[in-house]
Amino acid sequence: MAAHPPAEAVAGEIRAEVARQRLTLRTLAETTDITPSTLSRRMADPASLSFDELVAICSALGITPSALLARAESSCGISELRDWLESQPSERPKPPA
Known about the structure:
It is a single chain. The chain is mainly alpha-helical. The protein is 68% helix and 0% strand. Helix 2 (25-32) packs across helix 4. The longest helix has 16 residues, at 5-20.
């Protein structure tokens, strides 16, 4: 499945932050409890990245999800990014209707 531009922008910002901090994806995986193979798959197909994984990655990188998403927004636009985020799976319970 091809990644959507917002997903590519988010993955690009994750890669950029990993590079800025001189980390490897393996090190990042170890600090997020995401297996290295899963993290590699998410970076190759970022449309499959869940919101919970995004939060875990940001926490491990020491940045807020909002900071990372603000960086990604500059390359894909706010409405596209919002639509992508709303479509991402999460293990968080949904609020009552």
